[in-house]
Each structure stands twice: as structure tokens, then as C-alpha cells.
Specification:
By secondary structure, the chain is mostly beta strands. Helix content is 0%, strand content 48%. It has no helices and six strands. Strand 3 and strand 4 form a beta hairpin. The relative contact order is 0.30.
């Protein structure tokens, strides 16, 4: 049985800290949709999106957020990554 080698699931937010908006850089071999949910530091959900993996890099997030710290949860299938971003 051939061994299936899949790319590791990883996500980076840049620029971070940001002043206008930030982008996500996604590495995945999965084809499933990618969920992006943003929470403020009180745990309140302030943004939620679902996109194809190929469209993640085109997302521009955070332009309407007040200055502060945000947790960005990126999911695809069973993979979950949480990033912390800071808006100046």
C-alpha cells in the first residue's frame, strides 16, 4: 500500500501587527473548504468566512476592526490552527 504524504497544514497571518488589514498564507494538501473565524479578546465572534483553499490568500481581513488583539481560528476538516493578530 503506497504511503500517502500530505503537506502539513499551516497558516500564517501577515503583516502582524497590522494597521489596515491582514492576509492569511495557507499551506494545505486538502481540497475541503477552509473556515476562518475571528474572535476578539472577550471571545465574541466578529467575523466568519468559508472559502476554497485557493481563495484564502485573497482574503483581506480586519479593516473594520477596532485596534486590539484578535484570535483567528482557521479550520479545514480535522485541522485547526489558531493565530493571534494585533491591530495597531
Amino acid at each position: 500500500m503506497p504511503e500517502v504524504v500530505s503537506a502539513p497544514f499551516s497558516v500564517k497571518a501577515y503583516p502582524n501587527p497590522y494597521s489596515e488589514n491582514f492576509n492569511l498564507s495557507l499551506t494545505t494538501s486538502g481540497e475541503g473548504t477552509v473556515g476562518v473565524v475571528v474572535y476578539d479578546m472577550t471571545g465574541k465572534m466578529i467575523d466568519q468566512r468559508e472559502v476554497r483553499p485557493s481563495d484564502v490568500s485573497e482574503l483581506q481581513i480586519g479593516d473594520r476592526y477596532p485596534s486590539g488583539v484578535y484570535n483567528v481560528v482557521v479550520t479545514q476538516g480535522n485541522e485547526v490552527k489558531t493565530l493571534r493578530v494585533i491591530k495597531r
